[in-house]
Structures are given as structure tokens and as C-alpha cells.
Design goal:
Layout: H1 2-43, H2 56-59, H3 78-90, H4 98-103, H5 107-118, H6 132-144, H7 147-151, H8 169-181, H9 190-196, H10 200-211
Helix pairs in contact: 3-5, 6-10, 8-9, 8-10
């Protein structure tokens, strides 16, 4: 009798697997995905909703923007990110999106965001295709300038100096133009002097080179 029951159970399971097999497999894989995603979320700054989620729309997942108009935050030095958020909040730096957001952040939240993005490894700006001649001109300008003394040997930023390597072309050019026109400032005044001495074409060349600068992988 037991043997008959066992055979009946095996037959029933076999029929169910034939009918529901694909759905059961998909359900199992979906559950595995949720488990992995949940674990990644915990490692990535806590369970949903995370404070950094508000940044994804413009700056990309984990701060790795592929939109040429918005900067990548991944790998930016924490002091630089914190300073810029305070600047947006205080009105030292103005932006229609960042200013209202920064105003709502506490000092603790600013530190949390700065530390979070600083620990993310940046990726290359893979959506930008530079004009070769313009890029080469920009490389010479950067090499002959003092960019690396402030922004680091690999242009990855340090302290209150931002990462330039692999940033969006449109963003880089806008910032150089803003410094040149006096619309943006920084404590040393160096950027205004440097950008102001460059022609519009030279600023485009530098932005092209920096946007296409290859970032070393881990």
C-alpha cells in the first residue's frame, strides 16, 4: 500500500512539474533575485528607501552617471561632496534641482551621502565619443597645466578637489565656462584664473579629454 501511495505521489509531482514547471522555476529564480537584491541593498547603504536613491535619477545608480549633463558622484572625495552640498544649501552654489534638495539635508545626512558615494568605484564615461583632434589638444593642455597638482595624478580628485576623470563632457564644459564667466567660484580663485585664460575652444578640448579619460579598474 505504501508503495502504491509513493508511486502515486511521484506521479502527481511529475504531472505538476510538467504543468507548472516553468512557473515554479521562474518563481524560484525570482526569489533568489530578491534575496540577492536584498543583501546587496543592505551592503549598499541599508534597506530601501535609502537616502542615496534620490540621487539616481540624475547621477545614476551608485553615482555612476552616463548622462553627459550630470556629474558622476562615484569615487568623488567625501570632503568635496560634503562641501558642495553645504554650498548648495547655503546658496554659495545655485542649481534649480540641487539647492532645494540640499536644503532638506541635515549635516549627518550630508556626511552619509558623501561617505557613500566616495566609496563607490567609478566607471568610465562609456557613452561619450570624443573628437580625436579635440581630445588630443585637450590632453596637451592638461599635461602642460597644473590640473594634476590639485586633482591628483590620475585626475581622480583628492580632498576638496573633485574627480575630473570620466565626468560628463557637457558638465565639465559648463563648469569651465562658469568659472571663466565668474558664475562659479572656489576659495582659492585658481579655477577662475585658469578657465578665464582659456579660449572657448580650449575649454571644449579640455572637457573632451577629461570626459574620455580612462579610469583604472580595480
Amino acid at each position: 500500500m505504501k508503495k502504491i501511495i509513493l508511486l502515486g505521489f511521484v506521479a502527481s509531482v511529475s504531472v505538476l512539474l510538467v504543468i507548472w514547471g516553468p512557473e515554479l522555476r521562474d518563481l524560484y529564480l525570482l526569489q533568489k533575485y530578491f534575496d540577492a537584491s536584498s543583501h546587496a541593498a543592505e551592503v549598499d547603504g541599508g534597506s530601501w528607501p535609502r537616502l542615496s536613491d534620490a540621487c539616481i535619477g540624475c547621477h545614476g545608480f551608485q553615482g555612476k552617471s552616463q548622462n553627459q549633463k550630470y556629474p558622476s558622484l562615484a569615487g568623488q572625495p567625501a570632503p568635496y561632496i560634503a562641501t558642495q552640498l553645504h554650498n548648495f544649501a547655503s546658496g554659495v552654489r545655485s542649481n534649480p534641482f540641487m539647492t532645494p534638495l540640499a536644503i532638506t539635508l541635515s549635516d549627518a545626512e550630508i556626511k552619509l551621502l558623501a561617505d557613500y558615494f566616495a566609496k563607490q568605484h567609478p566607471g568610465n564615461n562609456s557613452t561619450y565619443s570624443p573628437d580625436t583632434s579635440l581630445r588630443d589638444k585637450g590632453e596637451k593642455l592638461v599635461e602642460n597645466g597644473a590640473c594634476r597638482s590639485c586633482h591628483g595624478g590620475q585626475l581622480m580628485g583628492q580632498g576638496n578637489f573633485p574627480r575630473l576623470a570620466g565626468q560628463g563632457y557637457d558638465y565639465l564644459l559648463a563648469q569651465l565656462d562658469n568659472f571663466a564667466a565668474g558664475k562659479r567660484s572656489e576659495p582659492t580663485g585658481v579655477m577662475k584664473s585658469i578657465a578665464g585664460a582659456l579660449s572657448a575652444e580650449e575649454r571644449k578640448a579640455i572637457a573632451s579629454y577629461l570626459a574620455s579619460f580612462a579610469i583604472e579598474s580595480k
